[in-house]
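[INFO] parsing input record for Peptidase S8/S53 domain-containing protein
[DEBUG] input buffer:
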Amino acid sequence: MERILKYIHASAAYRQGIFGQGILVAVLDTGISPHTDLQGRIAGFRDYIRQRPQPYDDNGHGTHISGIIGAGGKGAIHGVAPGCYLWSCKVLDKNGNGKIQDTCQAVEDIVAYNQRHTQKIRIMNISVGMLERVQPELQKRLLQCVERAWDQGIVVLAAAGNNGPGEHTVTSPGISKKIITVGSLDSCSETRRELSLYSGRGPTASCVVKPEIVMPGTDIISCGTRQGSYVKKSGTSMAVPIVSGIIALLLSKDPSLTPNEVKLQLYRSADRTGMDRRIKCWGTIDLRKLLSVY
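[DEBUG] output buffer:
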C-alpha cells in the first residue's frame, strides 16, 4: 500500500488532517475479517450467504479490499482513508460466487438503512460483476438497484471486470451510465501508464466510455484473513477501493457533495499523462489535483 499512497499523493490530504473521518463505506464482497489493521474500523456487518451475526471472511477478497480502503489499526497496512468506517455486506461465498439477488438485496438494505439513520453510508464499493447481455432481467434489476442508490445520495463504484482486453468487456453494474467504474493499471509510473491486459474495457453497448477511472490494480498488498497476515492480489477489484478511499477523503473534506458532484470533481481532476491515447477513459486521480480542483 505504501507505493499506492505515494502514487495518489495521499499526503496531500493527510497534511490537511483529512483521513476520511466521519465517512461510512459499504463493501459488498466476501465479508470482512477482524484483522489487526481493521480494528475499530468495522461499523457493521450483514451476512447474506449464511446469516452469521459476527464478521468473517472465508475467502479473503473482501478483507483485502477493506484494507485498501480503510485499514488504520495497529498493524502494518495503512489504507487510503484510515479514518473512515467500513460496513461489510457478505454477498459472495468462500469461492467468490454469489447471487445477483443477494447483491440487489444488500443495496436495497443499505438505501433503507440510510433512510432510518443520520449517520449515512456515503460510498458503496462493489466487486460483483456479470457480463453484458448475460441474464438480462437480473442485469436490469442490478442496474436499477445501484442507480437508485446513486439517486439516494450514495456514491457507487464498481469494477470494470477482468475480462479484457477486448472492447465491450466491462461487467455489470459497471456499465451503468451513472455510477463510477474503475479499471486497472499495471504501471505505477507517472510517466507511463499501461492498462492491465485483463482489465475490462468499453465502450458499453450504449457507447458509454468505461471505465472512467483507472488506478493501479496489480500486485496490491493488503490485509489477509489471519491476524497480522498480508496477501498480494491483482484485479480491477483492487483498483476500485483505491478510488473509494480517495472519495472518502474528498467527502470527509466536504460531506455536502452529491454523487454527481463527486463524479464531476473526478472528471475535472483526472490525469491522462503517459496513457495510450487509444485507451478511452478519463485517467487516474492525484489527490493534489483533486483537492485543489475542489
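[INFO] The chain has a mean pLDDT of 90.
[INFO] shutting down worker
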